[in-house]
Amino acid sequence: MTEEKTRKRKGIVHINHDYCKRCGICVNFCPVKNLEIRQQKLMELEHCIACRMCERYCPDIAIEIEEIDAKTVVTG
Amino acid sequence: MNQNTSFKRYLKMDLLPTPWCPGCGNGIVLKTICQAFDELNLPKNGTVVVSGIGCSGRSAGYFDLDSVHTAHGRAIPVAEGIKYAIDALNVIVASGDGDLLGIGGNHLLHAIRRNTNITVVCYANETYGMTGGQVSPTTPHNIKTLTTPNGNPDYPLDVQFLFKHSGCYFARSTVYHLNHLKKCIVEALKFQGFSFVEARTMCIVNYGRRLGYKNSNEMLLHYKEFYKINDDAGELAPNEIGIIKTNTLIKS
Question: What number is the ipTM of this complex?
Answer without folding.
Answer: 0.86
